[in-house]
Amino acid sequence: MNHFDYRDGALFCEGVRLADIAETVGTPAYVYSSATLERHYDVFKSAFAPREVLVAFAVKANANIAVLATLARKGAGADTVSQGEIERALKAGVPAERIVFSGVGKTEEELAFAVKARVHQINVESIAELEALSRIAASLNAAPAIAIRVNPDVGAGGHEKISTGKGDTKFGVSSAQALALYARASADKHLAAKGLAVHIGSQIRDLKPLEDAFRVMRGLAEKLRADGLSIERMDLGGGLGVPYFNEPPPPSPDDYATMVKSVFDGFDVALAFEPGRLIAANAGVLLSRVIRLQERPDKEIVVLDAAMNDLIRPAIYEAYHEIKPLSDTSNARVAYDVVGPICETGDTFTRNRQLASLKPGDLVAFMTAGAYGAVMASTYNARPLVPEVLVRGDRFEVVRQRWTLEDQLKLERIPDWG
After folding, report:
1. Which listed residue (343, 382, 411, 414) is catalytic?
2. Span 341-366, pLDDT tens digits
């Protein structure tokens, strides 16, 4: 469920007309619903009740500090993959003890920052990283909590570029390596080995690969305990899919929780999850305005002021986003190609899509754009980063200003060597 709906022919976000936001802040612009963010967090966490779990929102899905603060007030943690994301989470009010630090390319500076910040857990993804972290912890006279990220050789996800659990990907270590690394970490006085972590992909619409991966994880944990090692935590990652409107609904959080409970029935271990898209995707839209229509012999092309630099998912993942007019007054449907103004053929959002009849100046919304939208944006073609707006009830506020060309140019300089 989301809080975007039509009232008297106008598309609203909670109690605010989206056209009013577009007229106030301009287009393109991202708009997020506080109520949807909060509801999705509550639905996911309550699915595991009465078991208490850590729900660490995947900051890579939406890193805006106002979004993070909204979730932090509900008790959410943060799954982070860079020092910058840790700092964003802390600034938004996420306590360090609810922050997980993941990623295959953590630098020594980032590891040191995480140790000093006393984050909840560092997910270690290689032997080299374990050795570096041990050395850094020793220099800081610390013993950070760690988990070993396992690559269970189970692939899943909505696209090959977001499938992370197969054995040939860069993520994690094999099951055999995980056992050896965990034993090694348990014997290291500068590391506190707490558990195992796994994440096999994103936009997963079938619970079977998730269940297969989780059973691998339980088996490894049982083996470690049988060897006399303590294991307290299991980080099961994220990846559960969301509906992008053109497909049957994926499994619900209740379905997912039921599966998790069955896998870990009778196994005493603290569970953590890293949902991102599941919480943020349907909580956000991208507003755009029609610049013009280009006529072609077989169809019309709608040229918008939003482009692939603003929402790149269709260009790199062939992703589908429903496109809704902000004023739904016509029953006529026309087959359009919808494109942006960037000088790339790839700057195409969709082809032959049946949409309400459009004309220059009309406003539209790309739905399900709250995850991996603004965070993946760029200034390609010297275009500004677009504003982000947060709605609560009948109020809205700009939570990231639109960049100007001056904002871009002040970071650059022309050398004075002639």
Report:
1. 343
2. 999 999 999 999 999 999 999 999 99
13 is catalytic: no
Domain boundaries, the chain: 4-31+281-409, 34-279
Q: For the domain bounded by 34-279, which CATH number is listed?
A: 3.20.20.10
* Nearest partner of 24 among 402, 410, 302, 406, judged by Cα: 402
Q: Which CATH number does the domain 4-31+281-409 belong to among 3.30.70.270, 2.40.37.10, 3.40.50.2000, 3.40.50.300?
A: 2.40.37.10
Overall pTM surpassing 0.90 (yes/no): yes
Average pLDDT of span 385-412 = 96
Q: How many residues does the chain have?
A: 418
